[in-house]
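I am writing to request your help with a piece of structural work I have in hand. Thank you for your consideration; the sequence and its tokens are set out here:
=====
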Amino acid sequence: MKNISATLAIVWRIAAPYFRSEDKWAGRGLLAAVIAMELALVAIDVLVNQWQNRFYSSLQASDWDSFVREIWIFIGLASAFIALAVYKLYLNQWLQIRWRQWLTRHYLGEWLQGATHYRMQLKGDAADNPDQRITEDVKNFVEQTLTIGLGLLSSIVTLFSFVIILWGLSNAAPLHLFGADLMIPGYLCWGALVYAIFGTALTHWIGAPLVNLNFEQQRFEADFRFNLVRVRENSEQIALLKGEGAERGRLLERFGFVIGNWYAIMSRTKRLTAFTASYQQAAVIFPYVLVAPAFFAKKIQLGDMMQTASAFSSVQGALSFFVTAYRSLAEWRSIVARLDGFEMSVDAAANLPPHEPAIALKVAGGNRNIALEQLCVNLPSGTPLVAADAFSVQTPERVLVTGPSGSGKSTLFRAIAGIWPFGTGSIFVPEKAKLMMLPQRPYFPVGVLRDAVVYPAAPGAFETSRVRDALIAVGLPDLAERLEEDGHWNRMLSLGEQQRLGLARALLHAPDYLFLDEATASLDEPSEARLYRLLAEKLPQATLVSIGHRSTLEAFHTRKVTMVKHGAIHVLGDGGVPVEKEPSAAR
């Protein structure tokens, strides 16, 4: 019961926000309509149960007129049943897609807000494969929550509707044993209850491991698919290293987990199916065994017997809801657990670190400079990496940051961008300042080249002529003629071409502060020099901060700062901290 309560609490937390959202009236209306149709279908089942008594009684009495009348009644009931079933399914599917649409947008918004997706990885993402959580798990949650919820509602209403009928039939058809009537009030109801309790208890005992097995199956499937995608995305490096054999072994190892867990599901499902199939088949004959003595003793007619069997089947089916739906319930609980883990992981990443000091990103007010005050940048483990105090970048200064590999230069850039929370101290950024970070390997979304260049601006934010001029300026005249071409540009272009595209993006966006993290490292020195002169010409008011190791870069910066190792950390600073400054004229 504790597990059931916990699961229902999680389901309510995930499901309720939609029915309080901006789409609440459509969602509530569709849900009310589906519930009303479900109740109407139960009412038709009750009418059909009563019809069975009259129909079989007319057959036993050889009453032709009554027989024909009951046929027409059945046609009317069947027509109503078909219409309700069709539109219940239609409205159910309509509700599913609206609910899924809202939930998907909600999760995407939470996942992609404030670099949460990046921070989830920094802390060792507890929610593996967010792509699967947002696609398959959301779809299955909505579908199975409605299916199971409506099934449970139908079972409850069916139980209360038919238990009254079955109780009355128990009195009309008393238990007849050894030539004597045993007057046990509602004995058919008690028989259905005992039968269902017995079946439910055994079903849970046999099928309980399926919850964890289904959870693991989803995880193994997602992990295998994720590694297949990684092979596709890194096919060039794998081919150059001739790593096909190693990748095949790694992929087959992960697929082995899928197979092994699937065999465990097969074994457990076989046992569960063997019991539930036996249970359901026995339920077909069980009511006839109970009322047959009364029928052969001439206590009831054939119609009463058929109505009793039908009513017993309905009551027993309602009471046995957990037996018949157990496998679906096991899958549903694993989906709920996965979405719950995803929500907790997103929430934890959005509030990193929850109980520790964090780097504070503050507005500098009237000051036009970026300033670092008592800053200590740590690794996620808490190990100090970079220290800086009373360090500032003047406007429109051009600063070259150097230092050994692994000294934390890129991590410092991440902290200034506001996506690295681990550490202490403050980073002051001018109010409304426009910052742009260009990494060594820029990102381009799959799609039309023009839209990939202007990213993250919306498509059409820049005139096509401006985009074309920017590409020509950075030395990509051939690409300037392919702006409407659709492609996977990170795979189609060399790293040098990608870095040129990144600089074209910077020219279009014209940031106040441009940070280049070895953003020209794949270019030859003459090309790198031309592009730095281009930045000085096109963005004369922009403050430029570069990470680089080539000595030729010094000519294009007015200040050089070297990160110096001091104990276990690397120090960046001005007053009293060992740094190296070599001003030179920008050319």
About this structure: The chain has 19 helices and 16 strands. The longest helix spans residues 244-296. The radius of gyration is 35 Å.
